[in-house]
Amino acid sequence: MNICFITSSEVAPNIGGTERITSSISQALSKKYGIKCYSIFSEEQKGDLTLFEGKLKVENFTKDEDRIVKFIEDNHISVLINQGNNGLYSLFNSLKKKISNCKLVFVYHFEPGWGKHTSFKVSYLNWKNNPTMRGAIRLALFPVWSIKMKMSFEKSFRMSYINSDRFVLLSESFKKQFINFAKLKNGDKLVAIPNCLSFDDFLPESAIQDKTKTVLVVSRMREYQKRISLVLKIWKEIEKDDALKDWKLKIIGDGYDLKDYQRYAKKHLQRVEFLGILNPEDYYKSSSLFMLTSRSEGWGLTLTEAQQNGCVPIAFDSYSSLHDIITDGYNGCIIPNNDIPQYVKSLKNLMLDDNKRCSLAGNAILSSHRFEKDKVAEIWYQLFKDLL
């Protein structure tokens, strides 16, 4: 069986969550089932690139349709998997007419509906980063433009669903949400497949005792979704407690809000370290606690990365698939959304209670085995068998 993944960026495990999952699943499918995996992408990357049987770089997915068709036919692709680009529904529609023996699968990597609510601040920052006349007009007409974008966004996912043979969500809890959001009559083509673990190794439970008094954040520095400002506000309260003076915060990631966070930390905080982009695995292994403050996630890949390394996650209850990963008080902590005082309280309790923290860490490692690469790859393989 030959399958092909379509991604915006060339697949490399350290580029982002979608690329990391594509890398993990393609390798697991190849190793366990002998499936030959191919890649189509538009943005070249450098560094540790994932190996595929063959690759095709395109300048524009729609304009390069003929090259894509030829690539699919030449390599006898049985299943084409679109990793979340809802702008390609017209391409899928065209491919359905041109290639009858290739099944089309769309994977939605976010919470259904996420992205339809665009804030003025985000639009302004995007325009500031790339000032154009078109962008200026959008800002001037923002109330009208945002309504138009919401309708266009809903249509793009409705058409992506219609033009796909299967539509994959990351959680069963998202199905009803997606049907309502995309205004579908039914969800017969919807399938739920969780993200697999990023790493092959699990922290030995004996190593939990060796962890340092470090709280870790691994995230893009994008305020609207990730809300790192809340991390810093919570940490400000932690630093006020002399009983926690040995604890430090380490933040891995980059993005155009990073400088704002650094300025805040320099003015208000003492024990915060910004580390930039790097492989976080060793930091998960050495850190005791992990913070997530996102407004929304599709899955929260960093949560399972933390769990398999015994780094206890604490997260706001801001999206439904969180409950697929964390059982509150067993393998992590779930905090009522936006309740900063409760987040501070839970964080302090775990910092001060070694036995409780170590117990949750052990449970986190144990529970993370549910999402091993081979187990998730088996679900994907069954999907392919059902399609073909």
Automatic annotation (TrEMBL):
<keyword id="KW-0808">Transferase</keyword>
<dbReference type="InterPro" id="IPR001296">
    <property type="entry name" value="Glyco_trans_1"/>
</dbReference>
<protein>
    <submittedName>
        <fullName>Glycosyltransferase</fullName>
    </submittedName>
</protein>
<dbReference type="Pfam" id="PF00534">
    <property type="entry name" value="Glycos_transf_1"/>
</dbReference>
<feature type="domain" description="Glycosyl transferase family 1">
    <location>
        <begin position="203"/>
        <end position="364"/>
    </location>
</feature>
<dbReference type="GO" id="GO:0016757">
    <property type="term" value="F:glycosyltransferase activity"/>
</dbReference>
